[in-house]
Amino acid sequence: MEPQNARSRRTGAALLQAARELIEADGFEGLTMQAVAERAGVSRRGVYLHFSSRTDLVTALYRDLGRTEEVAASLQAVWDSPDGRAALTEWAAHIARSHPRILAIMAAVDHARRSDADAAELWETAQSRWLMGCTRLMRWLADEDSLAECWTVETAADMMWALMSPDLLTRLLSGRGWSRQEVADHLGTLFRATFLRQEQTP
């Protein structure tokens, strides 16, 4: 007989997968506790045993995306770089390899956030974390005296954050047919030319 905690973990994973599939298929508007229950083959009561509210479910889904799509491991490669310049190039690679995996979710959340409080909260959480990462990276460059003189840490972080827009990736990958490697290579070139002191730009 399967242990109760193992069954609970399996059910929780099924609910998160169902939530993701609903968002990708029907947009954030399609994410209801009833729809998640039906898709996962769980009673509505069973959903509430794992997640006390839709907000709780959405928060757990966001955290799960980082685990299942290995976003955290990809990001760690940035912070493991030997210096800020290498980290800047690795940041471009991180965006190219990780963000396409969550584009459908982020697009759905972006669309719904103006009228849906849960979507708005999820969007703000994601964006604040992206901005924190950008700020950490630009502070690293500044500490090494590698940040171009036209930038402050704050303005450079703001610009990098803006360049991480899901719309940019959608346009390049879907609209123009770029590969992820092309995105990584050209974003890396753009980032180095934009944010590094001129004498450090190849």
Model description:
The chain is mainly α. It has 2 domains: 4-54, Arc Repressor Mutant, subunit A, CATH 1.10.10; 69-200, Tetracycline Repressor, domain 2. 75% of the residues lie in helices and 0% in strands. α1 crosses α4, α2 crosses α3 (44-50) and α7 (103-112) packs across α8 (117-143). The protein is elongated, with a radius of gyration of 19 Å. The chain starts with a helix and ends in a 7-residue tail after the last helix.
Count up the domains.
Answer: 2
Q: Which CATH class of the largest domain applies here? A: Mainly Alpha
SSE string: HHHHHHHHHHH
Main sheet: strands, sense, barrel: none
Gross morphology:
elongated
Given helix and strand content, the structural type is: mainly alpha
Share in β-strands: under 5%
Number of strands: 0
Percent of residues in helices comes to over 70%
CATH topology of the largest domain: Tetracycline Repressor, domain 2
Count of DSSP-assigned helices = 11
What is the mean pLDDT?
A: 89
Radius of gyration: 19 Å
Could you name the ranges where pLDDT drops below 50 across 5 or more consecutive residues? none
